[in-house]
């Protein structure tokens, strides 16, 4: 019962932080601002998270766990898939993970550097499960892929995810700068970028 009570309070803090992250930049969000969105004072929040980075790391972990469930669905609900079908299915799981992609591309280093080791280990477990599930999908659907080819895919695909958000989510200021710099850039959605990248890696 005590653990359930603690988890409920932690979840409330996490949800408040998520809402703020949808509106503000990471650097502008403080523990004071988070506390104003909850019934908890800033000192009370310290009972659950030592830094704001630990709250964001908890969000990051949850995002990976949600994604992991969708990856498992691909693995468990399909007996076989073509490369095109798999690329499309995997891209669709990324399409609705804007928060995960934003954290990856903009804030991952700070979150890991400013969180306690035990918090980081829990996050890495969620990340590791996602990596393993993608590997299991490759083993199941593409039996002709060697172990080396699968490892090469994983070590290309997961770093590739770091770059999706800044290419797909472009501000008006960035668009204006590209235009004035005479760069004829074709904008793509998260799904389109993910699909193109995955297809290329499977060739």
User: The biggest beta sheet, please?
Assistant: none
Task: Determine the mean pLDDT.
Answer: 95
Tally of separate helices: 12
CATH architecture level-2 label: Orthogonal Bundle
In total, how many domains does the architecture comprise? 1
CATH homologous superfamily grouping: Tetracycline Repressor, domain 2
| Overall helicity | over 70%
Uncertain segments: none
What integer value in Å does the Rg equal?
19 Å
Determine the oligomeric state from the structure: single chain
Shape: globular
Specify the CATH class. Answer: Mainly Alpha
- How big a fraction of the residues is strand? under 5%
Structural class based on helices, strands and sheet pairing: mainly alpha
Task: Write up what this structure looks like.
It is a single chain. This protein is 74% helix and 0% strand. It is mainly α and 203 residues long. The chain has one domain (50-202): Orthogonal Bundle (Tetracycline Repressor, domain 2), CATH 1.10.357.10. Helix 4 runs parallel beside helix 8 (117-141), helix 5 packs antiparallel against helix 12 (190-202) and helix 9 (147-161) packs antiparallel against helix 12 (190-202). The relative contact order is 0.11.
What are the key terms here?
Tetracycline Repressor, domain 2; about 0% strand; globular; about 200 residues
